[in-house]
């Protein structure tokens, strides 16, 4: 059983208490006397259960479950109203989490409770804004419906994001951006199927539920394919990087580690999710230009490079950027971060000699992450450094090679300390800085 942080457990119990209060305070007599009410309730509950049975699970960096049970949930707001959508969502989630997915008890509690809170809140907002639930006649109330759907997705996805943030120590801003902001427009568009379901049921009763199955599972399949493509693209990028790094045993896994450090540093300075994702991608691809044959003998060379060889090696940021630009989705910011990740803060770097704020923020972050991983990797000419020595070196070159603000953020980041500490070896602390200062060597 997975061990969760105490604050995650506290949060789950808070969601559970909220759900219990909402269920206890509800008026369960509302609307149930209407003709055909119980048939509608059973039909929507059955459709929700079927949707969960056919949910798909994607695996990758994170495990994701793709289901379309939200369609009958939201349709129940339009048809049944009151607390009844909470009953449908609660029963469906409990069965799906315990029988279908066999989750741990704490996760069953959270996922069931957060759906009750999300759909219950949406149901009350629908009525409060003027929506009139009815089994017998379809009434389209645009503002109430759109508001209810938006509130449902924000609470449901946001609750998952909050639990994840508390569990892994990421910022709420980032996890909410991933779970809510990135999908809200698609979710609202897909929620139009709930309106279709409500209309078909009011016109055709149970037959209407059967008719909506085709577009319902088309949405499910599209959602699955989109997420699968995103994961496949990331896997292909990582595979390409691993193939390049296989040329040099000392840089195996280098780009993936640089991406992790860069992402942690970007989060430390409170960048948004999309910016963090962009910088992490640039960090992953910062050395892809080394796949060209001209770099192969230089990567395998044991001794120091000649001036001519150094000039060739210093062309790799531009070659990497050119290669990255062949992928349309990576042109622009990712490409520029890759191109300028060897620019120094004082303008003495390459390829263009940019200085200070002229250097893209992402490139300044990748520079620090790249250098950090080089210092914490065993090389032929020295052993890996410990965290304290890494920080001392970064501070020594702060304002010349590195952005001083980013060095400060690096030093205060607990996440980076944990990453670096697991790699650095127990070596003697470095000596006090002595002029003149030489630039830190970065892994070829």
**Class derived from helix and strand content:** mainly alpha
Nearest-angstrom radius of gyration? Answer: 27 Å
What assembly state would you assign to the polypeptide chains in this entry?
single chain
Sheet with the most strands? Answer: 2 strands, antiparallel
* Uncertain regions spanning at least 5 consecutive residues: 56-65, 425-436
Strand content: under 5%
The SSE order reads: HHEEHHHHHHHHHHHHHHHHHHH
Shape: elongated
Beginning-to-end CA distance, first to last residue = 42 Å
Question: Could you report the average pLDDT, rounded to the nearest whole number?
Answer: 80
Number of helical stretches of at least 4 residues: 21
Strand order of the largest sheet: 1-2
Helical percentage: 55-70%
Number of strands: 2
């Amino acid at each position: 059983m997975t061990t969760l942080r105490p604050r995650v457990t506290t949060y789950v119990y808070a969601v559970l208490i909220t759900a219990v209060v909402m269920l206890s305070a509800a008026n369960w007599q509302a609307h149930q006397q209407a003709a055909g009410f119980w048939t509608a309730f059973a039909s929507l509950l059955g459709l929700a259960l079927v949707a969960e049975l056919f949910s798909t699970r994607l695996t990758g960096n994170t495990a994701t479950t793709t289901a379309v049970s939200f369609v009958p949930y939201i349709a129940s707001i339009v048809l049944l109203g009151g607390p009844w959508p909470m009953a449908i969502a609660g029963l469906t989630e409990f069965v799906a989490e315990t029988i279908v997915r066999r989750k741990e008890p704490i996760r069953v509690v959270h996922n069931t409770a957060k759906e009750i809170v999300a759909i219950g809140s949406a149901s009350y907002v629908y009525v409060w804004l003027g929506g009139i639930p009815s089994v017998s006649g379809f009434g389209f109330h645009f503002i109430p419906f759109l508001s209810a759907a938006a509130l449902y997705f924000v609470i449901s996805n946001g609750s998952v994001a909050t639990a994840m943030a508390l569990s892994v120590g990421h910022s709420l801003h980032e996890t909410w951006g991933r779970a809510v902001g990135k999908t809200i427009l698609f979710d609202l568009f897909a929620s139009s199927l709930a309106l279709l379901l409500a209309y078909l049921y009011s016109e055709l009763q149970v037959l209407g539920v059967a008719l909506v199955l085709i577009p319902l599972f088309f949405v499910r399949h599209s959602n699955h394919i989109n997420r699968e493509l995103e994961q496949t693209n990331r896997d292909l990028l990582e595979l390409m990087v691993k193939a390049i790094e296989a040329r040099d045993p000392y840089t195996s896994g280098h780009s993936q580690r640089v991406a992790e450090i860069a992402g942690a540093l970007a989060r430390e300075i409170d960048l948004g999710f999309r910016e963090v994702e962009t910088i992490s991608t640039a960090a992953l691809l910062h050395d892809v230009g080394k796949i060209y044959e001209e770099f192969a003998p230089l990567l395998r060379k044991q001794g120091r490079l000649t001036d001519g060889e150094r000039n060739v090696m210093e062309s790799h940021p531009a070659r990497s950027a050119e290669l990255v630009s062949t992928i349309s989705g990576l042109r622009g910011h990712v490409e520029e971060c890759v191109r300028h990740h060897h620019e120094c803060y004082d303008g003495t770097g390459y390829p263009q000699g940019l200085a200070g704020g002229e250097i893209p923020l992402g490139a300044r972050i990748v520079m620090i992450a790249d250098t950090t991983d080089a210092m914490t990797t065993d090389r032929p000419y020295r052993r890996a450094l410990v965290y304290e020595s890494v920080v001392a070196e970064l501070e020594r070159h702060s304002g010349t090679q590195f952005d001083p603000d980013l060095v400060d953020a690096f030093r205060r980041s607990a996440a980076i300390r944990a990453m670096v500490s697991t790699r650095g070896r127990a070596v003697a602390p470095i000596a006090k800085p002595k002029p003149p200062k030489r630039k830190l060597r970065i892994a070829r």
